[in-house]
Amino acid sequence: MLKILIASCVLSVFAASINAQTMDRPAMDHSNMDHAAHMKMTADAQRQAEVSERGRDVMPFDLAATTHIFTRTAEGGTQQVVARKSTDAAEVKLARQHLKEIREQFLKSDFSGPTHIHGQDMPGLSDLKAAKPGQIAIDYKDVKGGGQLTYKTADATLVAALHKWFAAQLSDHGKDAMEGHALHRPMN
User: Fold this and answer.
1) 166, 188, 174: which is closest to 79 by C-alpha?
2) β-bridge mates for residue 124, sequence order
3) Could you tell me if 61 and 94 are in contact, meaning their C-beta atoms sit under 8 angstroms apart?
């Protein structure tokens, strides 16, 4: 009886350990997935891991401790980086610093950060790089828990490029990004 009780305790501890190790990772549901869907999911996960790794070279904050929020608007959109815990002063400061720096770079048509993280062929990026100074207004402001960039342009091609660029970032950042809700249509 004592051996059964000990074995039961050991199994319970082992099960709790496995559960604790996997709690942060959602289980993949393969039951309704064909091979092509499984391969796409695997490729997406690999791309997100690569983007996260390269992101460390450009973004000073902890990607897992922050959320990127992309909201499309008729004139362009907003990009926010907020700490998952708005009381995390260090991450809030780093997010704000980063957005202020990339604003200055983008106003000079310097998109080297996104190019390094997401690649030369990132959707929308070539049109954004080709924009003439002043074609896209980019404003910064502090928001609760982080910062925000607002992109505005009257050029329909650049609005479309911003929307494609936002969609690519949403895909590449995976669980560390989310779509805002200003426009209620799917991103291209």
Assistant:
1) 166
2) none
3) yes
pTM beyond 0.90, yes or no: no
DSSP code, position 111 = -
Asked whether the beta carbons of 179 and 188 are under 8 A apart, the reply is no
Instruction: Enumerate the domain spans of the chain.
Output: 51-179
| Cβ(80)–Cβ(146) below 8 Å | yes
Q: Of 28, 58, 31, 56, nearest to 44 (Cα)?
A: 28
DSSP one-letter code for 63 = G
Q: Which of 5-9, 29-33, 76-80 has the lowest mean pLDDT?
A: 5-9
Q: Which of 138, 143, 81 shows the shortest CA–CA distance to 110? A: 138
Per-residue exposure over 22-37, b if at least 16 CB sit within 10 Å of its own CB, e if not: eeeeeeeeeeeeeeee
Closest CA to 67 of 49, 82, 52, 56: 82
Partners of 139 in the beta sheet?
150
Instruction: Report which DSSP code applies to 187.
Output: -
Q: CB neighbours of 89 closer than 8 A, spacing ≥ 6?
A: none
